[in-house]
Amino acid sequence: MLNTRRICRGSDLTGRAHATSIGRTACAAALCSAVLAVSLSGCVVHETRPLPKINATQANHEIPGDELLDVAVHIFDPGIPPEIAKDEQALNKRRIYPDIRHAESRYVATILRGTLEGSGQWGAVRVVPDGVQFVDVQISGKMIESTGAKLALQVTVKDSTGRVWLNAKRYQSAADTGSYRTDAALRARDPIQNVYSEVANDMLAAREALLVQDRRDIRRVTQLEFAKDLAPQAMDGYLERDQKGLTRIVRLPAVDDPISTRIDRIRERDSGVVDTVNGYYDNFADQMSDSYGQWRRASFEEIEKEQRTLNQARTRTYLGAAAVLASVFVPQQCGVYDYNCRRIEGAVRTAGAIGGAASILSGLKKYSDAKTHAQALKELSDSFQNEMAPQVVDVEGRTLKLTGTAEEQYREWRKLLHELYLEENGAEPEELPPATPPQQAQPLALTPAH
């Protein structure tokens, strides 16, 4: 009787051990399945919501004429690093497409001009080449990053006295996805309008911090600087530099001074040429607006897809490897003669290895897809570049073709202004001081059309 009980107890313990081994094996199987399921599911992608809109502060009262400052927005530096300017692969990796950047450098300046003009806070606001120097307030900038998903700019603003309003300040914003939803929304508001509105509001704050007399002096200094450039001897002694390096007015010409009257008339002609060049930039921006908007939308979608694919690739590859390791290290829980348990254990190992390998291959495919999206973005950029064409504009009755830098043409125009002044005064042309070369060459220029 005693032996029978011992045998029964032994059988009971064996059954429990068998159940335990199968349970542990099934648990390992469940773990591998869970890892595999997570690896194949990828990552959760959250929808990008539209950004809060920032608008330029509108003028709520009429600004006196002698305080209404004119603004010149210079074409932005496209921001192409010289060390990789000829390395197409490095440029593509940083999403810098030179032809598009050159076009954007004009487009950004034009949109900023429109924002300032639309606020009603300023006088004449124009987009100008680097050679235009005698304006109340001048804006220059550099493009740091520009894609369909983000824009980053570095902006400097100073007035004609030399006072710096904004010193290489960085502005950046993600694209407002609301502008990409429909073509009408894209035309109604620029996806990066927040950046331009922030620049406009900071400029307004800097202007409001000035005294009324300071604003009036800025206007007068601009006029005297223009006159001094044309007639340095006649206008000598009206301006000076103070200890801070700012230009100050020493004295003013008489109201009926004949030289000042002639110079004012020539300045009107100069303003006409600047207006014509500004009109060219406006037309250029209008013509590229639709195609550029579509390119930015496609660029945004490609960047989103590429980022999503990269995230999924990492998740699938890492968790796939984890599934393989989990299958390899499934513990040996089955007895030598427990064939049912060993079959389950073998199935777990095989399923984990196959599933993990499949996940790794899926991750590698996702990396390949990311490269495909990047190539698609490059092709989109190339197609946009092909849509850009030289522009033709009439300046002072001359038909000019815009193909190089505007700086050289404006220098030629300034030289003509000197000659006009000298002719009206009956003087022989005198040697002019050499023009200051531009810091950065711009993509467009005015050259006579043939």
Strand order of the largest sheet: 2-1-3-4-5
Give the DSSP E fraction (strand runs of 2 or more residues): 5-15%
Q: What's the story with the biggest beta sheet?
A: 5 strands, mixed
Calculate the mean pLDDT score and round it.
74
Q: Quick one: how many beta strands?
A: 10
Helix content: 55-70%
Radius of gyration: 35 Å
Outline the low-pLDDT stretches.
1-15, 35-46, 383-391, 428-450
Q: How many domains comprise the coordinates? A: 2
The number of helical elements comes to 9
Distance between the termini: 121 Å
The shape, in one word, is: elongated
Structural class: alpha+beta
Order of helices and strands: HEHHEEEEHHHEEHHEEHE
What does this structure look like?
The chain is α+β, with helices and mostly antiparallel strands and 450 residues long. The protein has 2 domains: 1-211 and 278-388, no CATH class; 391-448, no CATH class. Helices cover 55% and strands 13% of the residues. It is built from 9 helices and 10 strands. The chain has helices spanning 2-41, 88-93, 98-119, 183-188, 193-208, 212-230, 258-328, 339-387, 406-424; strands at 71-74, 125-128, 137-146, 150-159, 164-174, 239-241, 247-249, 391-395, 398-402, 446-448. The protein has a 5-stranded mixed β-sheet with strand order 2-1-3-4-5. A 3-stranded antiparallel β-sheet has the order 8-9-10. A two-stranded antiparallel sheet has the order 6-7. The protein is elongated and about 85 Å long. The N and C termini lie far apart (121 Å). The relative contact order is 0.14.
